[in-house]
Design a protein that fits this description.
Layout lengths: L12 E6 L6 H17 L1 E2 L2 E2 L2 E6 L3 E6 L8 H18 L8 E6 L2 E6 H9 L8 E3 L6 H7 L1 E3 L11
Antiparallel strand pairs: 1-5, 2-3, 4-5, 6-7, 8-9
Length: 161
Protein backbone atom coordinates (compact mmCIF):
# COMPACT_ATOMS: atom_id res chain seq x y z
CA UNK A 1 0.00 0.00 0.00
CA UNK A 2 1.71 3.15 -1.23
CA UNK A 3 1.59 6.14 1.12
CA UNK A 4 3.44 9.44 1.22
CA UNK A 5 6.86 8.77 2.80
CA UNK A 6 6.41 11.83 5.04
CA UNK A 7 3.28 10.34 6.62
CA UNK A 8 5.00 7.16 7.80
CA UNK A 9 5.57 6.85 11.58
CA UNK A 10 9.03 7.74 12.93
CA UNK A 11 9.71 4.10 13.86
CA UNK A 12 9.13 2.90 10.30
CA UNK A 13 12.02 0.87 8.93
CA UNK A 14 14.12 2.36 6.12
CA UNK A 15 16.41 0.96 3.48
CA UNK A 16 18.72 3.38 1.70
CA UNK A 17 20.19 2.67 -1.72
CA UNK A 18 22.80 5.14 -2.94
CA UNK A 19 23.56 5.45 -6.61
CA UNK A 20 27.08 5.88 -7.91
CA UNK A 21 25.82 8.76 -10.05
CA UNK A 22 22.95 11.21 -10.16
CA UNK A 23 19.84 10.19 -12.04
CA UNK A 24 18.64 12.37 -14.90
CA UNK A 25 15.22 14.03 -14.68
CA UNK A 26 13.88 11.51 -17.20
CA UNK A 27 15.28 8.59 -15.20
CA UNK A 28 13.83 10.00 -11.98
CA UNK A 29 10.39 10.23 -13.55
CA UNK A 30 10.60 6.62 -14.76
CA UNK A 31 11.99 5.34 -11.44
CA UNK A 32 9.20 7.06 -9.51
CA UNK A 33 6.61 5.36 -11.73
CA UNK A 34 8.29 1.99 -11.16
CA UNK A 35 8.47 2.60 -7.40
CA UNK A 36 4.78 3.52 -7.34
CA UNK A 37 3.91 0.22 -9.01
CA UNK A 38 6.28 -1.88 -6.91
CA UNK A 39 5.21 -0.42 -3.57
CA UNK A 40 1.51 -0.53 -4.47
CA UNK A 41 1.90 -4.29 -4.96
CA UNK A 42 4.47 -5.01 -2.19
CA UNK A 43 3.13 -7.58 0.24
CA UNK A 44 4.24 -9.90 3.04
CA UNK A 45 2.44 -13.26 3.03
CA UNK A 46 -0.40 -11.69 1.07
CA UNK A 47 -0.82 -8.68 3.39
CA UNK A 48 -0.26 -5.17 2.09
CA UNK A 49 2.81 -3.37 3.36
CA UNK A 50 2.20 0.29 4.20
CA UNK A 51 5.23 1.89 2.65
CA UNK A 52 6.51 4.89 0.78
CA UNK A 53 9.69 6.24 -0.69
CA UNK A 54 11.67 9.37 -1.24
CA UNK A 55 14.49 10.08 -3.66
CA UNK A 56 17.06 12.48 -2.23
CA UNK A 57 19.71 14.46 -4.13
CA UNK A 58 18.75 12.63 -7.35
CA UNK A 59 20.79 9.65 -6.15
CA UNK A 60 19.43 8.10 -2.93
CA UNK A 61 16.38 5.84 -3.07
CA UNK A 62 14.91 5.53 0.42
CA UNK A 63 12.20 2.94 1.06
CA UNK A 64 10.16 3.29 4.25
CA UNK A 65 7.93 0.61 5.77
CA UNK A 66 5.45 0.95 8.65
CA UNK A 67 6.19 -2.34 10.40
CA UNK A 68 3.61 -1.73 13.12
CA UNK A 69 0.90 -2.74 10.61
CA UNK A 70 2.68 -5.56 8.81
CA UNK A 71 6.36 -6.40 9.12
CA UNK A 72 8.60 -7.21 6.21
CA UNK A 73 9.38 -10.89 5.79
CA UNK A 74 12.30 -12.61 4.09
CA UNK A 75 10.27 -12.93 0.91
CA UNK A 76 9.15 -9.30 0.88
CA UNK A 77 12.70 -8.07 1.55
CA UNK A 78 13.93 -10.34 -1.26
CA UNK A 79 11.32 -8.82 -3.55
CA UNK A 80 12.54 -5.29 -2.76
CA UNK A 81 16.17 -6.28 -3.33
CA UNK A 82 15.22 -7.89 -6.64
CA UNK A 83 13.39 -4.68 -7.61
CA UNK A 84 16.46 -2.57 -6.80
CA UNK A 85 18.67 -4.98 -8.76
CA UNK A 86 16.36 -4.55 -11.76
CA UNK A 87 16.81 -0.78 -11.49
CA UNK A 88 20.58 -1.30 -11.43
CA UNK A 89 20.46 -3.28 -14.66
CA UNK A 90 18.02 -1.02 -16.44
CA UNK A 91 19.78 2.24 -15.58
CA UNK A 92 23.34 0.88 -15.52
CA UNK A 93 23.85 2.20 -12.01
CA UNK A 94 25.22 0.74 -8.79
CA UNK A 95 22.74 0.85 -5.91
CA UNK A 96 23.72 -2.14 -3.76
CA UNK A 97 27.44 -1.66 -3.10
CA UNK A 98 27.82 -0.74 0.57
CA UNK A 99 31.60 -0.27 0.22
CA UNK A 100 31.22 3.25 -1.16
CA UNK A 101 30.83 6.59 0.57
CA UNK A 102 28.77 9.63 -0.41
CA UNK A 103 29.56 12.99 1.13
CA UNK A 104 28.92 16.66 0.49
CA UNK A 105 31.37 19.02 -1.12
CA UNK A 106 29.45 22.27 -0.88
CA UNK A 107 26.14 21.72 -2.67
CA UNK A 108 27.59 18.80 -4.63
CA UNK A 109 27.28 15.16 -3.52
CA UNK A 110 30.50 13.23 -4.15
CA UNK A 111 30.77 9.46 -4.36
CA UNK A 112 33.98 7.55 -3.65
CA UNK A 113 35.06 4.02 -2.92
CA UNK A 114 35.75 3.34 0.73
CA UNK A 115 39.46 2.99 -0.08
CA UNK A 116 39.50 6.39 -1.79
CA UNK A 117 37.61 7.96 1.14
CA UNK A 118 40.15 6.49 3.61
CA UNK A 119 42.98 7.94 1.52
CA UNK A 120 41.24 11.32 1.37
CA UNK A 121 40.88 11.27 5.17
CA UNK A 122 44.56 10.41 5.57
CA UNK A 123 45.47 13.23 3.16
CA UNK A 124 43.14 15.63 5.05
CA UNK A 125 41.01 16.13 1.91
CA UNK A 126 37.97 15.35 4.09
CA UNK A 127 37.64 16.22 7.76
CA UNK A 128 35.53 15.44 10.81
CA UNK A 129 33.25 18.28 9.67
CA UNK A 130 32.66 16.84 6.19
CA UNK A 131 28.97 16.01 5.85
CA UNK A 132 28.56 12.31 5.10
CA UNK A 133 25.51 10.18 4.40
CA UNK A 134 25.09 7.47 7.02
CA UNK A 135 23.15 4.86 5.08
CA UNK A 136 23.16 2.53 8.09
CA UNK A 137 20.23 4.32 9.75
CA UNK A 138 17.37 1.90 10.36
CA UNK A 139 14.23 3.99 10.82
CA UNK A 140 12.68 7.30 9.76
CA UNK A 141 13.58 9.06 13.02
CA UNK A 142 17.25 8.13 12.53
CA UNK A 143 16.99 9.06 8.86
CA UNK A 144 15.77 12.54 9.76
CA UNK A 145 18.34 13.08 12.54
CA UNK A 146 21.40 11.03 11.64
CA UNK A 147 21.50 10.46 7.89
CA UNK A 148 23.33 13.67 6.93
CA UNK A 149 25.87 14.23 9.66
CA UNK A 150 29.43 15.42 10.16
CA UNK A 151 31.82 12.51 9.63
CA UNK A 152 32.81 12.75 13.30
CA UNK A 153 29.26 11.66 14.26
CA UNK A 154 29.11 8.67 11.91
CA UNK A 155 30.80 5.34 11.37
CA UNK A 156 33.05 7.27 8.96
CA UNK A 157 34.84 8.78 11.99
CA UNK A 158 37.08 5.69 12.28
CA UNK A 159 39.00 6.96 9.24
CA UNK A 160 39.59 10.46 10.64
CA UNK A 161 42.52 10.65 13.01
Amino acid sequence: MLVDFNTLPEESRVWIYQANRSFTEEELSEIKEKLDVFISNWTAHGSDLQSGYTIEYKRFIVLGLNQSLNAATGCSIDASVHFIQQLEKEYKVDLMDKMNVSYKQGAYVAYKSLLDFKKMAKDKAVSKNTIVFNNLVTNIAEFKENWEVPASESWHSRFLK
